[in-house]
Amino acid sequence: MVEFYGEIMRRTLFITTALALSTLTLAGCSAGVSEMAPGEPQVTLVEEAADGRSGTADSLIDGGIAYDTGIAETSREVITTGFMSVTVTSPEDASSDAIRITESVGGRVDGRSQYAPRDGDRGSSTLTLRIPASELTATLDKFKELGTLQEVSINSVDVTMQSRDLEARITALDASVERLLALLTKAEDTETLIQLETAISSRQGELESLKSQKRYFDDQVAMSTLTLNLVSVADAPSVEPDDFFAGIITGWNSFVAFFAGVLVALGVLVPWLVFAAIIAGIIVLIVRAKRRSRRAAQASSGEVATPTAKATKSR
Questions:
Q1: Is pLDDT above 60 for 153?
Q2: b or e along 45-80 (b: 16 or more beta carbons within 10 Å of the residue's beta carbon)?
């Protein structure tokens, strides 16, 4: 009987111990889950002097706050910009079509420049468009249908780290401002009150600056920036006259163009003609000199031969 009751007591003690350990384990897990929600930045406030314990204003402002930022893994954030040039028949009409296409996908126009015709073309137009990043590729395909594509370039910059850093700093400053506001209600002296208000004002200004930067990043990521250049080419001039007066004008223009071409040709040939004249003059002088020397030689040989012939005849 003693052994039987001893065995029962041992089993009871084992079951009680197991139940106690299970309870402690479940309590620890529940506490861990409640304190650290996955995917959210965790901010832990260390309360000092909040319940009346001693502490200076500086320790209340700077020494009483600690934070831990744990950013969950999310998708990449990319800022996309691009440039596109299209040759169109009418830049004004093509600009209206491009604006309509942009607004149909939820985009907007941030800038528009229109240029007057020159050198025989029909002008040009430059648009600065903000297009949702998810619709950029489809919108580019629609822009290609406006005319003949000349150039397109797309650039992307990954700003995921900068954006996450801003989120962490904003979260920390939010918690800091809330903590300081709570301490402000418990301040008992004027000096502490002034220091707390100064710190709150400074951190709220920095917080607004960070939020402004974050809004700018979010807008740049969500809406891609595209510069669309719409240009036109000059029309070829008509070469065939369609009436009598047009024929006269065409004939006169041809006449003037002919003599203008002749004058241009003469202008081009003048240096060569001068050079050829100089060479010809030199050649003429050389030929004349040779002829003179030949004649002089013949004359001298004739004078020598004459007395010899006379002596022969006398004999």
A1: yes
A2: eeeebeeeeeeebeebbeebbebeeeeeeeeebebb
Our separate counts of H helices and E strands in the chain read 7, 5
Placement of tokens 């126009």 in the chain: 109
| Angle value at C-alpha 262, between 258 and 267, nearest 5 degrees | 145
Q: Which residue has the higher pLDDT, 271 or 52?
A: 271
DSSP 186: T
Among residues 213, 193, 215, 211, which one has the least CA distance to residue 203? 211
Find the mean pLDDT for residues 21-27: 39
Separation CA 118–CA 89 (nearest Å)? 14
pLDDT in tens, 72-111: 445 788 999 999 999 998 899 999 999 999 999 999 999 9
Torsion, CA 51, CA 54, CA 56, CA 61, rounded to 10: -30
Does the structure show a pLDDT above 80 at 32? Answer: no
CB 82 within 8 A of CB 226: yes
Amino acid at 110: D
% of the chain residues with pLDDT over 70:
69
Tokens coding 283: 């050649």
The residue behind tokens 């832990």 is 44
Instruction: List phi, psi (to 5°) of 74.
Output: -130, -175
Hey, where are the domains in the chain?
40-233
Q: Output the six-digit token pair for 254.
A: 């041809």
Which of 34-43, 236-245, 248-257, 269-278 has the least mean pLDDT? 34-43
Tally of CA atoms within 13 A in the half-sphere of 193 that contains its CB: 6
CA distance 216 to 236: 48
Counting every residue written for the chain, the total comes to: 315
